[in-house]
Write a structure and sequence with these properties.
Helix content: 25-40%
GO molecular function: acyltransferase activity
Organism: Nonomuraea purpurea
Order of helices and strands: EHHEEEHEHEE
CATH topology: Aminopeptidase
Strand content: 25-35%
CATH superfamily: Gcn5-related N-acetyltransferase (GNAT)
Pfam families: Acetyltransf_1
CATH architecture: 3-Layer(aba) Sandwich
Number of domains: 1
Keywords: Acyltransferase, Transferase
Largest sheet: 7 strands, mixed
Protein name: GNAT family N-acetyltransferase
CATH class: Alpha Beta
Length: 182
């Protein structure tokens, strides 16, 4: 008798058929269910994914898919903001897969790639309800550099920009519980 309580987790490069569409669909469905965001957000994610698919430089840009028991359950993208700055984009972990540190592992992949690609800094834009993601970013040494109220995706939000000096070394905190924060 096999033990189905053992789950297999993997982080792999984006690139299989269906990956791009899954990223867009998962963002649309999860953010609508958890935060009440409308299809404007899904459209934004679709543009980010389409831009990546149409014109990415594999030496400077990459994306990853997290899998749990062979199912897609998470993603993150690392794209060039400019010659010296990488941008972490569209981090997501499906609610059913949270608590496995997949968000932290995806962020770590993104940071490690940006360092190997010789970026000097990394930035990201997020919004105030995304507490678990922010906890991961802060534990990796990101610091908030901007904050602004806005109305987007059908709701009032506080947008936040974070930056990370990629030359700095920051001890990685244990955020095993961070992904469970809502």
């Amino acid at each position: 008798m096999s033990d189905r309580s053992i789950e297999t987790m993997a982080i792999r490069r984006l690139g299989r058929p269906g990956d791009l569409g899954w990223v867009v669909m998962a963002h649309g469905e999860i953010y609508a269910a958890e935060f009440g965001w409308d299809t404007d957000f899904e459209a934004l994610v679709a543009r980010i994914v389409a831009d990546y698919a149409a014109d990415n430089d594999p030496a400077r840009e990459a994306a990853w898919i997290a899998e749990l028991d062979g199912r897609r359950v998470g993603c993150v993208f690392c794209v060039a903001a400019d010659e010296t700055t990488a941008q972490l984009r569209i981090l997501l972990v499906d609610p059913a897969a949270r608590g496995h540190r997949l968000g932290a592992r995806l962020v770590d992949e993104c940071i490690a790639f940006a360092r190997r690609a010789r970026y000097e800094r990394m930035k990201l834009w997020t919004n105030h309800p995304l507490v678990a993601a922010r906890t991961i970013y802060l534990s990796r040494g990101f610091r908030q550099v901007e904050q602004e109220q806005h109305h987007s995706f059908g709701v009032d939000l506080i947008g936040q920009v974070f930056e990370l000096d990629l030359a700095a070394t920051v001890p990685i905190a244990d955020e095993a519980s961070a992904e469970g924060v809502r």
